[in-house]
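User: I'm new to structure prediction. If I give you an amino acid sequence, what do you actually give back? Let's try with this one:
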Amino acid sequence: MTENHNLKLKIALLSTCLVSASLNAVTGMVPEMANSFPTVSLSTIELIATVPSLFQMAGVLGGPFLAKRLGYKGVMLLGLLLCAIGGVIPIFLPLFPVILLTRCFFGIGCGLMVSSLLTLIIVFFDGQTRSTMIGLNGGISGLGSAFATFAAGQLLAFGWNVSFAVYFLGFVVALLVFVAVPSVAPECKEQIRFANTVRDKEQIESKEQKIRPALPIGLWGLGCLMFVSVLFATMYVIKASTLISEYGYGTAKEGSLAITLLSLGSFAAGLTYGKIRAKLGTISLALFYAICLAGFVVGGMATSLLPVWVGAFLLGYGYLGFMPFLQEQASRSYGAYGETATNLILIFQSVGAFVTPWLGSLFGLFTKDLKLQFFFTAGCFGVLLLVAVWIWQREKKEA
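Assistant: Good question. You get back a string of structure tokens that encode the predicted 3D arrangement of the chain. For your 399 residues, that looks like this:
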């Protein structure tokens, strides 16, 4: 493989992160869509932000089966086309049932891309290059999310449905992948087996062990912790734009900037997570929860745009801090269960994001004030912080 071709391959593979990361690009449009669909409840409209997460898991789980027929490049192209087609249809058919359905397609497409991207990176690269590519995956995703959300906010000036034009990027990336990525047959058993079952050295060792028939309570506990953590954190994602509009701090355009800053916070967390985890160990989970708590407090106390944006950045940082921590903890503590442990955590993660609109409805039974709802959520993160401290103390005793 020539150096020039190698560079094109890297660019093509990493460019898929720009598409999958744009999942929340149109979340800032929720207030404008609520005005256009007055007969649809706000919690239902907010599903445009969360329903892709649920269907993304279907794509992740179904990707390996489709790869037997289409190959991994074919699965990636299918995922890109589902994202692109599902993404742009609302421009031409701005009907809420259609939008919700296309968001399901988008989620499946993202899942297919996730299921094939890691496989292709591990097949085509090794050593330090492979590690660098996997690291760039997270970093580019954060930047891609910020760019897509910002672009969607600018397109809002032409109508909220025009904001979906950011998903035309999927067609461009699909063409790039078609041209630059070689086909990989699923019959490449050694490479594909490695790519599908190995994410780090610990999982290599665990995969060689006998899988136990029953999942331990501790693993279910980590899954539940992931569920409630994502459930609470996603409140900021789907409510920031509404908070800005309701309190007169700005319009949906400024709401989109809040999601952009949240994405930048996630990008910053991706760059620093490894160092924090290595230095602080298990107590780093408490730090990430504390940052999320601070984000909601700052947002709840806001009297202007700036605090809402600051809170969004903090929440994004804490969000992309606790997620990899819990995923890694499952791998470290329950590696003997192989992919089952990882998939269980991912399922709880997806379901937590999906049901968040109903958390807002539950809080709405007590108060319609979004600021108070932010303080409620901050209190929930306070409880999670105590749980994280308890986990740290227990680990210290067992060490």
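You can read the tokens as a compact description of the fold. Here is one thing that stands out. The mean pLDDT is 82.
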